[in-house]
Write a structure and sequence with these properties.
By secondary structure, the protein is of the alpha/beta class. The protein folds into two domains: 168 residues, P-loop containing nucleotide triphosphate hydrolases (Rossmann fold, 3-Layer(aba) Sandwich); 70 residues, Orthogonal Bundle (Helicase, Ruva Protein, domain 3), CATH 1.10.8. It has eight helices and nine strands. The longest helix is centred in the C-terminal third of the chain and has 16 residues. The site of adenosine-5'-triphosphate has 11 residues, from strand 1 and helix 2. One of its GO terms (molecular function) is ATP binding. Keywords: ATP-binding, Nucleotide-binding, Transport.
């Protein structure tokens, strides 16, 4: 059974100049006749990808090749400009961990709020608070506002909440680089638990030995396109070969 299907998905995004948008500067450049329309860049180009339920898929590729963008389109954080995305099942997106917290609320209130947004009752979530805080090693911070945590601690809380209930589809964007060594080991063993179950797992990482060893299939992205998808050792070898060959496909 298919868990995820992308058909001819393309996405254009505005380039960074637009983020330094400044009305006065824009008016002056128009008056000067120097105004240029903000640029748009294609970040995904005609992606066709089907992932079967229960498959463990690794996504590799150089910086800026579109890996995180692909995950965000699958989670519904970004809408493709053209093409279609179909997802069957509940997704736990471990992307930008902790981005959704209300920084003025306490850890306990954020945990309950997050669960309620996912459809759990308040009472169910109150029962989950303790194990979540314990997994994150943050029981001592239960009642302080989230803004007083360090960024690593916030990411730990995000990971602990998002993986508390096993999802149908787990999406991991470099989360294994979160936290200190002790927490990384805990993350890996929790993920291995899911790995053995029915969950569909999509993981983006630059840790190629880890991807090769833990995934059943690897997708190599370059310039917003899927270059190759197939057995981990073969796809990783093609990716590495392209990096070592300057005239090869890897042109970012
Ligand atoms: N918020 C944004 N607005 C506009 N363009 C963006 C934004 N975020 C990323 N991009 C662009 O989208 C393209 C793909 O970026 P993406 O983050 O998907 O790459 P990646 O393969 O995950 O890279 P990395 O390995 O560095 O994490 C890049 O050209 C990047 O500049």
């Amino acid at each position: 059974m298919e868990a995820i299907r992308l058909s001819n998905v393309s996405l254009w995004r505005r380039t960074q100049e637009e983020f330094s948008y400044d009305l006065k500067k824009t008016v002056l450049t128009i008056l000067d006749g120097r105004y240029r329309k903000p640029g748009r860049k294609q970040v995904l180009a005609g992606v066709d990808l089907t992932i079967e339920s229960g498959e463990k898929v690794g996504i590799v590729g150089s910086n800026g090749s579109g890996k995180s963008t692909l995950l965000k389109v699958i989670c519904g954080i970004l809408k493709p400009t053209t093409g279609e995305v179909h997802v069957r099942g509940a997704i736990a997106p471990l992307i930008e961990l902790g981005a959704g917290f209300d920084s003025d609320l306490s850890l306990v209130d954020n945990i309950v709020l997050y669960g309620v947004l996912l459809g759990f009752s308040r009472r169910e979530m109150r029962a989950r608070v303790r194990p979540i805080l314990e997994f994150a090693d943050l029981a001592a911070y239960a009642d302080v506002p989230v803004k007083t945590l360090s960024s690593g601690m916030t990411a730990r809380l995000g990971f602990a909440i998002a993986t508390d209930v096993p999802p149908d589809i787990l999406i991991l964007d470099e989360v294994l680089s979160v936290g200190d060594e002790r927490f990384k080991t805990k993350c890996r063993s929790r993920l291995e638990q899911y790995w053995g179950e029915n969950a569909t797992v999509l993981v983006v990482s630059h840790d190629l030995p880890y991807i090769e060893q833990s995934c059943e299939r690897v997708v190599w992205m370059n310039g917003g396109r899927v270059m190759r998808s197939g057995p981990p050792a073969e796809v990783i070898a093609s990716y590495l070969h392209s990096i070592q060959t300057p005239a090869g496909a890897e042109r970012g």
